[in-house]
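Homework help board

Subject: predicted structure for assignment chain

Our instructor gave us this sequence and asked us to write out the predicted structure in token form, then describe one feature. I got the tokens but I'm not sure how to describe them. Can anyone check?
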Amino acid sequence: MKKLRLIAVAFLCATSLCVSATAQTPVELPQPLPEELRATTEQIATLLDAMRIKDQMNTVLELMPIIVQQQMQQQREVLNSRQLTPEQEERVNNFLRQQIEKSMDLYPIDEIIADAGTVYQKYISREHADVLIEFYKTPAAQHLIYVQPAMVQEYLPLVLSRMETRVKTFADDTAREARELLEELSEK
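My token output:
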């Protein structure tokens, strides 16, 4: 659950950063700007406010129990194969709910935003900060910000489910291929 929460927060931050990015990945990552070109702390705070980062993160965190519940539904088959009694299943569900609640306070949103601001400031110039602030105040950007949590809620379980299936298949294939290699090497 902690991992799921961190993935969701990371996904939200990444999508917020990449709203206007292209599908191409740069060969070389950009370097931090020289201090004298960087946006001011005030500009970054205004930008993050215009992006409604705090609201977005609060919304994502409110969605986390729903996402975790969806994941728990997928795990019901595993629980049922162990034939838990209704009381045992209720205890497991209570435990999971408690862990979700505890995980919500591991990395407070204000700290996440402060850390994000420090990083944003390294890569966003004063000039670009002003342009981005104006962009994020537009109706189109505000609409994107508004619908983003719903998109994350729909998209994240899909991605996690597909990743889980593909990682399992990959791990099984790798284990099989490793066994075959070891058998082949032992025959020589």
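Reply (TA_rk): Your tokens look well-formed. For the description, you could write something like this. Confidence is low (pLDDT under 50) at residues 1-11, 17-23. That's the kind of observation they're looking for.
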